Fold this protein.
Amino acid sequence: MSLANNLSTSMISSSSSAFLAPTSFNASRTRSVSVPLKSLNIVKCVATPQEQQIAYKTKVSRNANIAKLQAGYLFPEVARRRAAHLLKYPNAQVISLGIGDTTEPIPDVITSAMAKRSHALSTLEGYSGYGAEQGEKAVRAALASTFYGNLGIEEEDIFVSDGAKCDISRLQVVFGSNVTMAVQDPSYPAYVDSSVIMGQTGQFQKDVEKYANIEYMRCTPENGFFPDLSTVARTDIIFFCSPNNPTGAAATREQLTRLVQFAKDNGSIIVYDSAYALYMSDENPRSIFEIPGAKEVAIETASFSKYAGFTGVRLGWTVVPKQLLFSDGFPVAKDFNRIVCTCFNGASNISQAGGLACLSPEGLEAMQEVIGFYKENTKIIVETFNSLGFKVYGGQNAPYVWVHFPGRNSWDVFSEILEKTHIVTTPGSGFGPGGEGFIRVSAFGHRENVLEACRRFKQLYN
Amino acid sequence: MSYSQFLSHVCMPHAVFLQLKTSSKSNAGSRLGHCSKVPRNVNLEKLRSGYLFPEISRHEFEHLQKNPNASLIRLGIGDTTHPIPDTITQAMAEHVRGLSTIQGYRGYGAEQGNMALRKAIAGKFYQDMGIKADEIFVSDGAQCDISRLQLLLGPNVTVAVQDPSFPAYIDSSVVVGQAGELEEETGKYRNITYMNCGPENNFFPDLSTIPRTNVIFFCSPNNPTGHAASWQQLKQLVEFAKANGSIIVYDSAYAAYIRDGSPRSIFEIPGAKEVAIEISSFSKFAGFTGVRLGWTVVPEELKYSNGFPVIKDFNRIVCTCFNGASNIAQAGGLACLSTHGYQALHNVIDYYMENAKILVDGFESLDLNVYGGKNAPYIWVHFPGSNSWNVFREILEKTNIVTVPGRGFGPAGEEYIRISAFGQREHILEASRRLKVYL
């Protein structure tokens, strides 16, 4: 991201952080003071109604669900701090191992297909308007055969999208506000945040740093980053990500079998996030549908972002098996389809052309090379922290390294690392209370930056 | 042709296939195996049928099944047909090739959009209206933005829509839980206020009869009626919103089609920044229906009742539920707003509006009451006393022309048919010929 980009993000984010600073706005609501914090010092204490002193307000109440969110979304917050740091040290060589943003160019075989599609849009034969909201048939078919070949998942079960993050919210819209959910703790923040926005949760409880009504499934080194399901209360929906962001843990076949059984016994629906499946080194399942019975209990979401460097191009997919039913027997896929047709209008046709190229034999090979590059980065980072005596997790099956800083506040460690080495990481507590005491280091970056970052880590922690 | 071949040919939503194949009866569970214990979202139960446009596609498919040799002319779904001008696709191709290079590679963009594009939109469309780049959020299209706005507003707001109107406003309102029960007799959702717009009131609601709602959806130029609201009408609307403390969601997706000097943006009206959000799209402006690009303007002055700026919450939604429009589409968008691109696009719009004129002239020559077609690519034809789905079916049967029944846009759309003016000239001329013969 260019600096200009960051600054613009920071302009919105920093002001939103100020506004969303924990208690001030809630307090102002109950006091019926609607003066923005920044201009408090210009309010005069006279006996005129307060309304006359302030700019016009509508009579529309703020959505109470959004008001529950404690701060900005995690990654813009990290970006904001990065930008602030750059303002402080304009000549610093900042290395970003924070936001998991891909850095390596997209292989030619993929971009040439997208360039071709772009040009074709200027011709009569090649022009296409609205595509099927569920995605172009060829892409759906290629996804089915590439990833779900012998798993009984068919083309019509697959919905192409503009990415997993957007799909997560669309799934929440399908489920509605009257469902309960469970997440891993720590986990990718979009599951919790989208749940709050949908109105599935209660208020944030500061003492435990959790939202009421969400079941947090603690995942720690002690339990091998797989929750003790015997202690997990029943919820309607279970979000599960493997290989995991942020811990890098990959669930085994045995673990996923237990998860599927748990969901079956409880009549729950698993939303399985497989965005990092191709980073798997070990022999673990890459799709939840490798587990027998999963089609009756699981939805799987996936993305081209981290495989093809499509973080900016925007392409992903969600699998909703026809066997997945609500309690009244109504197929979940029908409702998901209705949401896709009503709240979405399909992924960009150019991106889809790229996706198709990704799934060609040449494209798959090219993606594996890029993934291999990032995996090599991961290895270097793991070795560095190991050599410094840290307890290091992840890195084997995902492009994330989960480093333990026992007893320390993760935002403090984040700040210290940023201040002393100009390296951006992500504080573990941003992923939930179970992330406290950890730092996530992402392995995306040019090789020389990763090597330089590791040199600096060694300097700081030796 | 098999169903799936048809789908690949016309990109028809597969939804229909699912609907045809699976039963929605509750004993499906016992036939198919395990049922979860997750209750279906009651809001989705309130939607009575598929979304309007996939339904049109389904009728089209069925017609082709029965009449495989029919020479179908599609004036139904408002899908652009004209190739995108070279200057724009070249910019996209160049950007794409750049993604394969170290200097040109881009990962995640700002969720709010590329700043250069935001500035270009501000400069091109909101020049003297005091709208800043910071207030513009680039998206993958207005349909998606409508739902993101609904997520923002939440279930506890009341909404008003024009009747007839683009179905996404009502459907998204139902999905989010604002709409209440559907009243079978009227075909209206209990908690939605329907603002009748017809020839009798010059397609602008009589605001003195409209109860206060939190949110007012307003589209101009209008889909489906084609009416472009006048400055006076919009001033009334803004004053109404101000007096009621309401928020207008102003859909300006067809602004580029205006020919008669009507306002193109709600922000031309003084005071609008305190009461309105504007959504817009490159779809009909640039033929980007498949490329996916649009934008939403949320002025900083727009505040909730507690003074909290709406823009901050919208930004939070955009950062949490979205990840930015494709950077390729955004590169295209920037080229659309260059002098050369913009001119080329207006040539395409002129082409569509010439189509519209041909269709309007055709209907008028048949002594039918025809509306729209002057500031929008839609023609709204009145068939007094008719059932619009029946007219739709008859036209399809007898002339092999796909249109859209007015009832699909709301109860007040009954007796009307919407004809869209996108298409190749020869198809438009042929359609006009067939309609003259049949009607």
